[in-house]
């Protein structure tokens, strides 16, 4: 799953500006022809007002949902998920996050500054969270190696496949 250029920094900035409360919003993007998370590209995020009463909860303002849906329609994108921050805890879904999750959506969680991994993505289905690989486009991706079928002792070694 790809995160469009600059959005990683935007998520961190939104998290900081909402402190000590949780920040939240929506994710707009495109889904490829495959059903895997690899075919999703998050192209934009919408920062929403957090209507939750407590500082350790989030509730996306319904007006932000309407604005996000209009933008998605105008750009030929889709509403693909929701994001929120955990100001003091690791970016892993809490029990409340798992219970309240929209099945089929991507759930991005932004953790505290001190954490080694500050932004993580999940797919949550029936209360079970599965972490997804989130690749910011402005961070170089590692090269992968693919092997070629052996043609005997003089066959060339593995080929290097560049990032798309």
Blueprint of the fold:
Blueprint: E1 2-3, H1 7-18, E2 24-31, E3 40-48, H2 62-75, E4 78-85, H3 95-100, E5 106-110, E6 119-125, E7 128-132, E8 135-136, E9 144-146, E10 159-161
Parallel strand pairs: 1-3, 1-8, 4-5
Antiparallel strand pairs: 2-3, 2-4, 5-6, 6-7, 9-10
Give a brief rundown of this model.
By secondary structure, the protein is α/β, with parallel strands linked by helices. Helix content is 20%, strand content 32%.
Which fold does the CATH topology refer to?
Cytidine Deaminase, domain 2
Give me the strand/helix succession: EHEEHEHEEEEEE
Radius of gyration: 18 Å
Total helix count?
3
Mean pLDDT across the residues is 83
Shape: globular
Largest sheet: 8 strands, mixed
Instruction: State which percent range the strand residues make up.
Output: 25-35%
For the record, the count of structural domains works out to 1
| Strand-pairing-aware structural class | alpha/beta
Spatial sequence of strands, sheet with the most strands: 7-6-5-4-2-3-1-8
Give the CATH class. Alpha Beta
According to DSSP, the number of beta strands is: 10
- Give the N-to-C terminal Cα separation: 12 Å
Report what the structure shows.
The chain contains three helices and ten strands. The chain is α/β, with parallel strands linked by helices and 164 residues long. The strands form two sheets. An eight-stranded mixed β-sheet has the order 7-6-5-4-2-3-1-8. A two-stranded antiparallel ribbon has the order 9-10. 20% of the residues lie in helices and 32% in strands. The radius of gyration is 18 Å and the shape is globular. The relative contact order is 0.18. It has a single domain, classed as Cytidine Deaminase, domain 2 (3-Layer(aba) Sandwich).
């Amino acid at each position: 799953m790809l995160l469009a250029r600059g959005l990683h920094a935007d998520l961190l900035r939104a998290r900081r500006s909402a402190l000590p409360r949780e920040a939240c919003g929506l994710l707009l993007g495109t889904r490829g022809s495959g059903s895997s998370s690899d075919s999703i590209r998050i192209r934009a995020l919408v920062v929403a007002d957090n209507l939750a009463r407590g500082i350790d909860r989030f509730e996306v303002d319904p007006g932000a949902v309407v604005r996000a849906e209009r933008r998605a329609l105008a750009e030929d994108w889709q509403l693909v998920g929701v994001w929120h921050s955990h100001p003091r805890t690791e970016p892993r879904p809490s029990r409340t996050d798992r219970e309240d999750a929209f099945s089929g959506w991507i759930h991005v969680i932004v953790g505290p500054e001190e954490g080694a991994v500050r932004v993580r993505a999940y797919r949550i289905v029936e209360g079970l969270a599965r972490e997804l690989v989130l690749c910011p486009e402005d961070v170089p991706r590692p090269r992968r190696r693919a092997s070629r079928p052996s043609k005997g002792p003089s066959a060339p070694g593995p080929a290097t496949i560049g990032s798309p």
